[in-house]
Amino acid sequence: MPRLPTPTDFPPALHLDIIPPRSGPPINILILLHGLGDTKTPFTSLSRSLNLPETACLAIQGLHPIPQIFTGSEVPSFHWGDDVLIDEAKGEIEMDSGFEKTREVLGDVVRRLMEGCGFPAKNILFYGFGQGGMAALSLISSSSSSSSSLPAFSTLEFGGLISIGGRLPSSSFPTTSTSSPNTTTKIKTPILVCGASNSTQITRQAIDGLKERFGSVEYVKWDKRGDSMPGSREEMVPVMRFFARRLRSRQGVPEGAVEI
């Protein structure tokens, strides 16, 4: 039976918030990963607002601070990439800047949840915005698991992954020289990806890339400019429906358990 994680279950250097269910022990756990230039704080608040039944939440802060020279602000901001790269054409920080270190750290978190806290893969879900969504996609499409006791993450079926404005990183596409059964067989974890109707990271090419790697991909296009977090009930409905389908319950799914 899964148990609620505690801070001592994770390395001290990892900055995270653990949000328990409002009632009863958890059977699911949702890992929340913020976007480029943000902190874990808004996602800690989001987890409380979601109030998902029988579900603990883990809001993790990006591994690396963004230097002030790039942000022009003293307000702390963090990212998930291996480096800070600038897209000179757009004059902004590139989201797809490698996720090797992030895969290692997040993989260790998942291992601790599975082996130390008793969560099966199907009871672990991910919610990421922008670069956080890319980090989650990079993790579950990985052909390793950071543990000799676990199979490759790409062979596991996690509870599901929601990516808001985050595409599959370029490093997660198999090449001809590195293709293997683990990288060519479609990944079982169901994906919900949401993006804007224009000025979006979720292009047709991005959708095709996800469908190339994953067996179940649901795409929702919001009628707005630029990828951002859900800002209305209409935008939140497909997210909550996804949770309603994928969250597990000790008593089935009671009527009205998930508010949309």
Write structural notes for this entry.
GO terms for molecular function: carboxylic ester hydrolase activity; palmitoyl-(protein) hydrolase activity. This is Phospholipase/carboxylesterase/thioesterase domain-containing protein. One of its GO terms (cellular component) is cytoplasm. It is a single chain. The protein is α/β, with parallel strands linked by helices. Helices cover 26% and strands 20% of the residues. The strands form three sheets. A seven-stranded mixed β-sheet has the order 1-3-2-8-9-10-11, with helices on both faces. It has a two-stranded antiparallel sheet with strand order 4-5. Strands 6-7 form a two-stranded antiparallel ribbon. Helix 3 packs across helix 4 (131-140). The longest helix is centred in the middle third of the chain and has 16 residues, at 100-115.
Short recap of the structure:
The chain has helices at 41-50, 68-71, 100-115, 131-140, 181-184, 204-213, 233-246; strands at residues 16-19, 28-33, 55-60, 64-65, 78-79, 86-87, 92-93, 124-129, 160-164, 191-198, 217-225. The chain is α/β, with parallel strands linked by helices and 260 residues long.
